[in-house]
Protein 1
Amino acid sequence: MSSSRKSSTNSSEDDAKQLRRGPWTLEEDSILIHYIALHGEGLWNLLAKRAGLKRTGKSCRLRWLNYLKPDIKRGNLTLQEQFLILELHSKWGNRWSKIAQHLPGRTDNEIKNYWRTRVQKQARYLKIDANSTAFRNVIRCLWMPRLLQKMEGSSTSSSIMTSENSPVLRSLDLTSQHQALMTVQKVPGQGPGNLSEAVQCLDQKEQNSDSCVSSSESMNNISKISQFAEYQTSPFRMFDNNDYNMLAMDSYYVDNFNNSSCYNMEIINQASTSALGDFAKPVGDCHMAENNWVNDGFADGLWSVGELWELRS
DNA sequence: AAGATCGTCAACCGCCATTAA
DNA sequence: ATTAATGGCGGTTGACGATCT
């Protein structure tokens, strides 16, 4: 090995030894901010050297883009932002950077974290692949309408997100779209619509059309959903009658998807069977799943049990 | 009160595409 | 045409605070 090469190797080793890793200190942040204020961003390796930061260029770039940049928005994602993430993810998949471009002030990292910690969690508890058609349908037919409903309820200026300008909701088949819309539609003089109203409207529509679903089946849907309403007060009540084959939430998905023409029923049935399979076990075996479905899913601002299933009025 | 577990999020890693030399 | 440097992206990890047992 030549001496020059040796020297070069030692030098890079020294550099590597000197490089700092882990959380950034206030001082480092300050140095980076001031340097960029004076010289602008870019050429990150050079920037790191000239600023005297013992960090890689990549690390500096990441710190700036994800944390220090002045227009970074901090705090919880708004309902509108959550809706947008769900919608854009359904279009583009894990293209976090592309999705982030449509949420000013939000970083791809933040969106990715949101997806992994909040959204994928639901998929795990349902034992559905988060990238599966079945889970996408859960998001489109339940989660997104629910967000719309909450947006409608919480703000008078949620104009950016209506079912009319939402491509994803528009892409739903008529029945599912109807269901989604009814869920969020206000009944004049009666405040926000609720799920039972939504289902009733759905039934009416089905009766008026040449739907193959009988009214008794529709009533069955309501009955099943009502059973889920019981579930809200006691996560384990569903299982009190040893009726382990019925979880209203899953039934709701399946029954409504059965009425739909655009879904791959095999996939959905597989998914729901899988989910049911777990729920169908004795309580002791599936404590975690139930507990988390209720507590986590409904507690994160998207699935508020009391608000979502306003069935026992 | 203390240890275990869980959830969040900042940071890192590795791969790929682009660009400049 | 080749190669090295750089930037960008998505996946993963690990620290840390919160909650549970």
Note: DSSP finds 16 helices and no strands in chain A.
Protein 2
Amino acid sequence: MGRSPCCEKNGLKKGPWTAEEDQKLVEYIQKNGYGNWRTLPKNAGLQRCGKSCRLRWTNYLRPDIKRGRFSFEEEETIIQLHSVLGNKWSAIAARLPGRTDNEIKNYWNTHIRKKLLRMGIDPVTHSPRLDLLDISSILSSSIYSPSHTNMFGLQPVVNPELLRLAASLLSSQRNQNPNFVHQNVQENHFRNSHQVLENHIVQLQNQDHQTLIQETPSCAPLSNPTCVPYSSDNSQLMEPNVDQLPSSFSHFNPQNCQLNDWQNNLDNFIANENYVYQQHIIDPQSNLTSSDFDFNSHLSNLSTPSSSPAHLNSNSNSTNINGSSTEDEREISYCSNLFKHEYQEIMDSNAFISCNF
DNA sequence: AACACGGCCAACCGCCTGAAT
DNA sequence: CATTCAGGCGGTTGGCCGTGT
């Protein structure tokens, strides 16, 4: 004998609940308590199935349900719990008094998930996004001007020295400004980006200059690699000292700069530095700019596995996703994507605030 | 004013689990 | 042990509403 449906479908109402139905259900439960949802609707005089009644009660009519927008603390709790529990909405709801699993699920899908994606964080793994860049977003976005085909996010054109410096700055900010460590999503985001940068630098330490050249796209001539400053001395990274930074970086001094300003300065700096770097990568001998760059050619080369650097293809420890990406490539991709995204957000929101000291 | 579009969210659907028989 | 079924869960849908054109 097969399993029978939870309730008779015939003659039972579906769709939105009326105020009268709500009243019947509430009055019945207040008088008799809930349980045995199968027989409840009949006893309460409702033309609904038990399942529908249970859902209406647990998600809407229950007296201890908290209404209104999610607070910042609740949002943070959801993110933290989701990073541990995954899509266990009921388990997450159990730790958020007054919130239902349905409500949390909806809030996650409509707000938090998108927010994390915008920040370059995979909402499933809560790690930096490892997927390859979204081609369409690259093609459609315009970072500097509409006439510039955007290649800002294309891996692997990321100035390695820039990664070094960015990580150093992140370290110095963290060490010198106690307020930098505060519990919010942005902090988690920066913790992630910092970790990615540091990981990348460890890789850089293990690579020689020739490897760096190989990381550039095959269609981008790099006849003059000295245009990219590359230092083998990483002591500054390990022991960041802002006082030793060039004078042009003084506005990064965390002692004199608010967190938001500092982040904006860093974002802007990264964007501009990387832009200059990319122009050199394209053709250091000529005066070519990014607008002259053969974007489609670059793109097709990147998507061709054979164009991947040899040392990446031969990396037995790498895990391929989508058939062609290695850990190294995806990490570089993430850094690049992160910088692109953050700069784009600043441009979109016009939120850049200059710090003058 | 009319229409299109997208975001939001209540409600439904189908599957799973575990207790009861 | 096998079957049944209530309750619970996560994924999905569809209607409402605000906003833009």
Note: Chain A has three domains: 19-61, 72-118, 135-349.
Protein 3
Amino acid sequence: MAAYAQGPHHRSPSVASDPVAGEGRQLILDTAARLLRQEGYAATSLRDIAAECGMKAGSLYHHFSSKDELIGEVLRIGVERVAAEVRRAVMALPPDADARTLLHIAVRTHLTVLLELHDYTSANVRIFGQVPAQVRDAHLGTRDAYERFWSALLKRCARTGGWNPRRKLGLVRLFVINALNGSLEWFADGQSTVEQLAHELTELVLDGLVAREPVAKRARPNAQR
Amino acid sequence: MAAYAQGPHHRSPSVASDPVAGEGRQLILDTAARLLRQEGYAATSLRDIAAECGMKAGSLYHHFSSKDELIGEVLRIGVERVAAEVRRAVMALPPDADARTLLHIAVRTHLTVLLELHDYTSANVRIFGQVPAQVRDAHLGTRDAYERFWSALLKRCARTGGWNPRRKLGLVRLFVINALNGSLEWFADGQSTVEQLAHELTELVLDGLVAREPVAKRARPNAQR
DNA sequence: GTCTATATTTGGATAGAC
DNA sequence: GTCTATCCAAATATAGAC
């Protein structure tokens, strides 16, 4: 619901000097992100977005040259925000943090931004498979950058965490990100919290389903951080 | 590419007595499934489907009362086919099959149908999040039945496989199905086979990333059936 | 920066001939 | 069972007034 957006970077050059410039643009972006998240790509028309902004459809073209440009902006902001949050959370950990903590924090932060904080991120996950090929292709580079961050993170974990060297980290990354983003389709407050979800997924991926001996001896590290 | 479809069950009652009835209908369904898989929901028009069938758009209405009815059929067949295949593969195993074998066969069969066999199943996974709410709601029961099959399978595995009782099987099911279906977006022949994928996912979910001692001693059960 | 009005396109759906 | 022809609705996009 809240109105998050990009940071001071990536602001349109033409309005960089005006302190309140982009307010109209910002409202449009926030509204578009919310509707795209709720309704999907095809069911969100420019008329709908404009109406929610208290405007008419034609007015949007003062801020964006086409629907696809607007959608592209929402997609980009969605990825860059979650990437920035996860990166920050991981970097805030001590340099010698163990693999379990690293993975748990990354998973928890991603889920928090996706499920609780950011309409842009959830809109991205929701509509990425629905947008025209041209929009998707233009956006791929931004997604790739976040995927590379995860690759590096998993590699770091594997070095320090005593991971099974037979695991193919590329597939692990795909599995984990699919599991994270897939939660958007079924997660509902009430049956479980984001914190529980993060804990479960992290333990599943690290320890697997098969019990280790002795079962009862495994501690729950970093459950609340 | 191939033209799979539903079995003798679920045939439209009005044509049940005619041996070749449904041929036109079948062609339309097969074509729709293929296009929906490739292009997505919004980008697949009735004109496109008709053209690929060598027909005109209006002719489709002799076989289906609306686009949504046609799409609903494709969705249903896609789930029922993968459910039938996975169920059959699991039932073909000996009654005392171990949990690792059960899970591996179920995962492999699902991936095979999704990625190699069945346009209907991949179309279902691809467009489920894109269709109008009305179509999706009408289809939910069919999906639920397959989800319940997985729930029962995981419960059976947990009983016989020495699984960690702290794992929440409901979440495990969601994570696994997300990971399976998510592969549709990134799987490409050449970099790895379905068999390798199934093997990796099964081992990841069962054993986790953290190496067990002694690492080298773990066998690779059922790698080639 | 927003409005009204409209051009243009597209796609689902229908009617009736054959 | 398929065709032609057409209707209708919806959506993107543009032009020009204010």
Note: Chain A has a mean pLDDT of 89.
